[in-house]
Design brief:
Helix content is about 55%, strand content about 0%. The chain is mainly α. The radius of gyration is 16 Å and the shape is extended.
Length: about 60
C-alpha cells in the first residue's frame, strides 16, 4: 500500500461520497442521497475543531 497524505486521503473519501450520492440519485434513491449529504454536511460544519485519532502499527502488525 502506498503512503498517502492526509489531503489525498480526504480528497479520495470526498470523491467516493460524491460518486455514491450520484449513484443513489441514479437509482432513484434521492432520500438516501439527501440523508448522506446531510450527514457529511454535519461533519464538515462542526463548530469545534474535529479530533483525529491515529493508530501506530508495530512493524510485525503491518500487512
Amino acid at each position: 500500500m502506498s503512503k498517502q497524505t492526509a489531503r489525498q486521503m480526504c480528497e479520495s473519501i470526498q470523491k467516493y461520497y460524491i460518486d455514491r450520492m450520484c449513484d443513489l440519485c441514479e437509482e432513484d434513491r434521492t432520500e438516501d442521497a439527501t440523508s448522506m449529504y446531510e450527514e457529511i454536511k454535519e461533519w464538515l460544519m462542526q463548530k469545534e475543531k474535529p479530533k483525529i485519532l491515529t493508530i501506530k502499527l508495530n512493524q510485525k502488525d503491518k500487512i
